[in-house]
Amino acid sequence: MEFEAEWLLLLPILFGLGWWAARVENRKQMARMRQLPKAYFKSLNYLLDNQHDQAIDALIEVTREDTGSVDLYFSLGHLFAQRGEIARAIRVYQNLLARDDLVDAARHNATYKLGLVFLQGGLFDRAETCFTTLRNSPMHEVALQQLLHIYQSQQEWESAIDVAAHMQQTPQIVLTRMHFNCERAQLALTQKDLPNAERAIDAALAIQANSIRAQLLKARWLLLQNRAKESRALLLKLGEEQPAALPLMTGELMAAFEALNEAQTGTAYLYAQAQSSGSVDVLNAWIEAQDKYGEPSQTEALLYALFTLHPSLNALDKVLKKRLSTSTDLLAKQEYQAIQGLIKKQVLQFSRYRCASCGFEAARYYWQCPACTGWETYPAKRLEELEQAKRSRGQVNGY
Questions:
Q1: Alpha carbons within 13 A on the beta-carbon side of 23
Q2: What's the pTM?
Q3: Is residue 331 part of a domain?
Q4: Is 375 among the domain residues?
Q5: Is 267 part of any domain?
Q6: Are 263 and 257 contacting, i.e. CB atoms less than 8 angstroms apart?
Q7: Structural domain containing residue 302
Q8: Structural domain tally of the chain?
Q9: 190-217 pLDDT, tens digit each
């Protein structure tokens, strides 16, 4: 009991010490508040009143009096950028960069933020200038990523290749570099600039020797050089080694067969590949070639045999279309038209390609997804083929 009484005597002393500490801390806080420039509170009032230009002016006054207020600039710039007020965000970061006492880390960060705002406003040249100044700085890699985005979106392939070569060579960047060279080659081929096309194709193949796209471009280049036999040999080898390339190479392959006056041989090859692969694109290419070079009396039977081997709505649509064009029975034609009308919507839907990365669907094949900008994210199969492949994993027949 005597021990406890002594502790009770200490309670008033402890209470007094706590009260004194609180008073000291309160005085320190009041002193810090008094040290804040009046312009700081003025800028807050302007912000609350939605008087943004006046708020910026007041903020500038704060920084003249308080060199530790850099974070205010970043907060305000971020706020304006989020709200889409590009001009105000630009002004904030430009005023920050005008400060002579800004340390390098803050200057680099402000330059990067300013570049992002320029980019957000579609001012690509000014954004490029900002990010270019950050090359060889601690923000080198993120600046290069933004420059790559700019050059890719503007299709400035030479600059994009240079930037990508200076980035960390991840598998994705290596693939991107290869496709940039393919883009250069494709543009040169369109312009019939064969020497530049050859250099770009060789650069792409040096990065990825088994690239389907680069080999297809090589085959097209050979064809334009009147080297159809080499072009055909390259494509036949490609189809054998990488069957996934078959749906993408039918146009170039038939062009090579035609240049060699072997169109019927090419048509037969496409039919054999349609039989083995079940590809909708190969089927379409064969129908086009058969209509030009095949025996018309055999087309319907050959087409129906393909439909039986690889039943699909796309193949059924082709069978019905052919029967509508050849049938002389009015009642039968009406039945074919009715069936085709019922499946038309589904055929259009299942004839699309789907990006494996973001799910974006497109009517034609893209090497680069228009939505997520990923390279080679589209399987060279139509949606119906992909759905059939899913079903076949769980069922013997796939149906």
A1: 6
A2: 0.76
A3: yes
A4: yes
A5: no
A6: yes
A7: 298-341
A8: 2
A9: 999 999 999 999 999 999 999 999 999 9
